[in-house]
Amino acid sequence: MASDVLAYLGTTVITVWGIAHIAPTRGVVAGFGAISQDNRRIILMEWAAEGLTLVFIGLLVLIITALHGSDDPVSLSVYRISAVMLLVMAVWTLLTGARTSIVPIKICPAVKTAVAALFLVGSVL
After folding, report:
1. Domain limits at 90?
2. CA dihedral 37, 25, 8, 72 (to 10 degrees)
3. Which of 4, 9, 21, 94 is the most buried (most CB within 10 A)?
4. pTM summary value
C-alpha cells in the first residue's frame, strides 16, 4: 500500500513537471532572440523532448502500478529503471541548465531527484 502511494505521488509530480516543461516551449524558444531557424528547431525539439520524456516516465509508472500493483517484479523494475533515468537527467540538468539564472531550471534537478527517491523507496518497501 505505501509503495503504491509513493509510486502514484512520484508519477503525479513528474507528469505535472513534464507538462509544465512542455507548456512554455514556444516562449522559451522565443527567449533566445535572433537565432537561425535550425537552432530554433533544435531548441524546440530538445525542450519538448525532455518534457515528453518526463511525462512518459510518469505515465509508465502510473500504468504499471495501476495494472500490476507495486509488488509485481515488473513494477519494481520499472520503478528502479525510471529512477535511474531521472537521476541521469537530474545530473545532466545540474551540469548544464541549472547553471543558468532561470529558477525552474535550477530546481529541476531537485524535482527529478525527489521523484527518483520516491520510486526507489517505493521499490524496496
Report:
1. 2-124
2. 0
3. 21
4. 0.92
